[in-house]
Design brief:
homotrimer; 463 residues; 68% helix; 4% strand; membrane (chains A, B, C)
């Protein structure tokens, strides 16, 4: 086996000179594939097709332009869009060396993922007579899926090339769509704000990938990871935009009317409460009582993650605030006490601390969702029960079983994320004889030689 | 009395070591109180409650989801939210030393204030059978009240700890709600964009507080207050966001239909006109004809403040532009000629110049509102009169009396702000024997020893 | 003639001392004129007038507040507003020396242009019984026209004073309105997103002006034009905001319902595809395979420009992605190979590369629009045909002639832009005997001496 590796390591040197072509070729090939698939599979839906929308209008006298889903969802879509491109992009600029990388690569991965996600989500749970129908709802869903990829990006920031990130996105988007299909379609779970599908999945997927790509000498370049004054202000732009628009994020694809309104409000209160918890515990865990920028920038957002599932339910502002407070607390404590342990003991280098912002709060959100579902009753929801729970038909409603399915959904999500991350990142097969780095199945080369056994020293993979 | 002070000054030393616990404890205690009060007092309103919204829908065949107030107000809410967190937060980053403080503390105070404001505003003018009903309108109102606190923050930036700011917010939010109750409910005044309730109140409240906290040696650290290239660009982010979204701010809680539409447009024209006045007078008052960044960043916004009351009325674009031009002019002249006098003669250190941006333009807006009300007639407003003026019933309309009540509202607001600021900031009772700083009733310790007579040297109060 | 120039060149020295008054006086005079014209010409439209809106409501029982155009267009307006003030403003901050100039002057020109555009657009195609009616649609149109001026600003950034920019805006807005009148009213062309009226017009107008203002020694100060780390991050704020909100830009004034929805979605896919093309070709044209910040910041937006005309048509996501891919490709290639040639051979100094971002993609968009129109059929559009093409009446529809009129519109636009730019920039009449700079009809002095023959050495024109 040693000879086998040596042979491939030498070929790495040849690859290195070809690397300047890898990103352009991958981008062009991917986009051409996307265009062909869109050409054969994608169609306008009723609300975006000139013929269909106006045909329907004539048939039914009560259908008006203001009933087009555009007016219900487009403002929320734009807020979500800002979160994906400004929020996630700038949040990661706090690392001074990676400021432009984080915004720029974020831009590239997101632009790819939203197209790929449209296809994958359409394929798994949006086919109509062999065609994928698109409209503002599919645009929001594609942005959601992109968000999950960007969460994982936060874990591997600083040790991955854009090529690797694109390959990761191909896998992650696909698995995201499968997991979403299992949860929403098969198990009938509620997860409008994506505590499970987006945050838990994205976080644990990313953590496994960063584990596989473990680089012991990353510590030596830690000065790169330090933040400076201006990078902190740029990062606050990301934080604040995520914080402000989270109510739109969680409510973007809930049902019209009271569910959308209620979800936005629950999220608003959860975030406000979470922010006070974050400031409190950030000062508390510091020996001098100083506030830690990283906590403020990240943990204050955990309240949005934690009401992603239950936000559309009758959680009440009171309940939302309790959930937000808990989320902020565990997030700060995670940054302080858990992240160092993850790195030293489990060799998980979580660059942006996504376990604290998306992982644990996501799991909390799933649990809160299961409990809130299990407590839901027709007495509280009235005629609105079925508008929140699709299976909430009068007389047949079983809150406990609903809560159970929510809990199963969390387990499925964790399983999918862990296995998916492992497959994507590749398993460890040895060490580079030259630089002592672990060698993985170099997932970013799959596309290049159409083989799964190519071994490449990670230190050569940087573009 | 001297002994009395000495005793307390010594105890300050002990406090100093405990200070690292003050912020965390205050945050936790406040949030716990908020959660308990929300649990006992706050309920979903008709538009956010699953049972109530869907019950109503069945009773009336004409009630559709698109009539939920969410679709009328939520886009405006998000714009207001951006103004509060990005606009106010980044506007104050022009002081290079306080860049992160301004964004970070802005975040903390706002997150607290919007929760506290929901309770106070609900308590004073939103109780329904002993419960506070919440929805997107209450969210906007809470953000408005928060805006007032942040205006005051602009006057004391650089000489207050987050603990002091939180205590100031507790008092100011409460008095804001009382003043709002007097104006809108008792006097029946119009003030949708808050020229009086938000801007005039916030500005004069803050000016009194900063007067009480006067620190003569603040001059010595004036180099801290200087701006640099990048801090100016960050501040422009704040300015531009406030400028762009001000039409949404002024129109966020006006009546549906023409008033909301008209308010947004009047504000748009007022701001455009104000901007030209600002550039003109900024260059004019400079000996070399150079533009002053601080004027551009602040005075260009005065046009939004000055149509806060009259914007929903038939002010016409023509009238809005005149008001905007005047507002920009007095604001620039205020920065140039009044601010230095306020500091040297009246010992009012107005760090961000809120008197020029919110104080004088707010008073101008109140006067414009009173005049426009006094000129309102059924001939101009037609059937729309009552949609702008709640008491504009046909046959009983008295424009002059309406104008009079608007004028009284301004006087009440000024009185409330001045007394409120004085009570909150505390009165001056002596000087610190050590550092010669004035001693005030240390308002930020009230929560700590449950007494109003604790005296603490301000120089020790910094966290 | 030499004497003639010498005489005027001396008078320049006197002017220099008066220059500090030029900007203030121009701003004040312009704003006063605007206010007078608004007072005599502008009225609220049906949707913003208290009497008219509520009168209509009573007449027709089916008219509800949610039918006010405010709710259909205002969220889009706010997105467009953000693009104009944040997007264009910050996009140009990549030049480190001109960071504040670009944001600040952008602010001034935009605030003026939107007022002047309201008048000009109303005058040429919005008069009702001698009055200009205003509402949210006129606000969007005014912002669109402003966008065109800001595009031209990108070509002359760094060699023009704010006074010159304001004078350019006076001319350009007027010609924009004339061109728009010819295209939309006379030729009946479709151009909702302004591929022709905004981008092509603004780009070629600006290129001619910068040609006239050619300064050979601009090269010497090229270090001023270099970008630095933070200026790149600020520029990315501009880029990302333009990118995210472009779907709102293109759909802001299309018909309600399916056209608005479809336009937003087509733009979304075009931009995503364009971004991948931009990353691919940016790396490909670099000898080391590195990404060029300027390409990412600009070319990724070309996809929005290129679907400005066809976006509202049944272009399909597939077609949009192809257009976006082409737009990104030609834009990057333009930056790499065409811009240097334009400067060295044609003496066109295109500071921000507007030819690559707006010029060529705008022409591409016009061509795509003409082709898509020529292919439009009742079979595809059904009853929706007339909602996209105003002249799409059943039985009388002639797709080929529609395509022809679209093509003519492009030619008209190019002609208007070139002639307009020449008139505005002034023709070259000689060289300054002192500094060898070319002398043009100094357009920014027209207002000052009410003559068209004043000659002023450009090197003295800087304020």
């Amino acid at each position: 086996m040693g000879d086998f590796f040596q042979k491939y390591l030498k070929s790495c040197q040849t690859f290195a000179t070809n690397m300047r072509l890898r990103l352009p070729l991958l981008c062009i090939i991917l986009e051409v594939i996307l265009i062909i698939l869109f050409g054969t599979l994608v169609e306008y839906n009723v609300d975006t097709d000139a013929k269909l929308w106006n045909a329907n209008k004539n048939q039914s006298a009560t259908r008006h332009d203001y009933e087009n889903e555009f007016y219900y969802r487009y403002p929320s879509f734009q807020d979500v869009h800002v979160m994906i491109f400004v929020g996630f992009g700038f949040l990661m600029t706090f690392l001074q060396r990676y400021g432009f990388s984080s915004v720029g690569f974020n831009f590239l991965i997101a632009a790819f993922s939203l197209q790929w996600a449209t296809l994958m989500q359409g394929f798994f749970h949006g086919m109509h007579h062999g065609k994928i129908h698109v409209g503002v709802t599919s645009m929001i869903n594609a942005d959601f899926c992109t968000g999950s990829v960007l969460i994982s990006f936060g874990a591997v920031l600083g040790k991955t090339s854009p090529v690797q990130l694109l390959v990761m996105a191909i896998f992650e988007v696909t698995l995201f769509a499968v997991n979403e299909f299992i949860l929403l379609t098969i198990l009938g779970a509620n997860d409008a704000g994506g505590s499970m599908t987006i945050h838990t999945f994205g976080a644990y997927f990313g953590l496994v990938v960063t584990r596989v790509l473990y680089r012991p000498n990353l510590d030596k370049s830690k000065h790169r990871n330090s933040s400076v004054y201006h990078s902190d202000l740029f990062a606050m732009i990301g934080t604040i935009y995520l914080w402000m628009f989270w109510p739109s994020f969680n409510s973007a694809i809930t049902n019209y009317g009271d569910p959308q309104h209620r979800t936005a409000m629950n999220t608003y209160y959860s975030l406000a409460s979470c922010t006070l918890a974050t400031f409190a515990f950030s000062a508390l865990v510091n020996p001098e009582g100083k506030l830690d920028m990283v906590h403020i920038q990240n943990a204050a957002l955990a309240g949005g993650v934690a009401v992603g599932t239950a936000g559309e339910m009758m959680l009440t502002p009171f309940g939302s605030m309790i959930v937000g407070f808990l989320a902020g607390t565990i997030s700060v404590l995670g940054y302080k006490y858990l992240t160092p342990v993850l790195e030293s003991k489990l060799k998980i280098q979580d660059t942006c601390g996504i376990h604290n912002l998306h992982g644990m709060p996501g799991v909390l959100g799933a649990v809160v969702g299961a409990v809130t579902s299990a407590l839901a009753s027709p007495a509280v929801y009235g005629n609105g029960l079925q508008r929140v729970f699709a299976d909430g038909e009068p007389g047949e409603w079983n809150a406990q079983s609903r809560g159970g399915f929510q809990a199963i959904s969390l387990v499925v999500t964790l399983g999918m994320a862990l296995i998916g991350g492992l497959v994507t990142g590749g398993y460890k097969v040895g060490k580079c004889s030259e630089c002592m780095l672990p060698l993985g199945k170099s997932f970013d080369l799959i596309y290049f030689k159409f083989t799964t056994v190519i071994i490449l020293c990670h230190s050569n993979e940087r573009i």
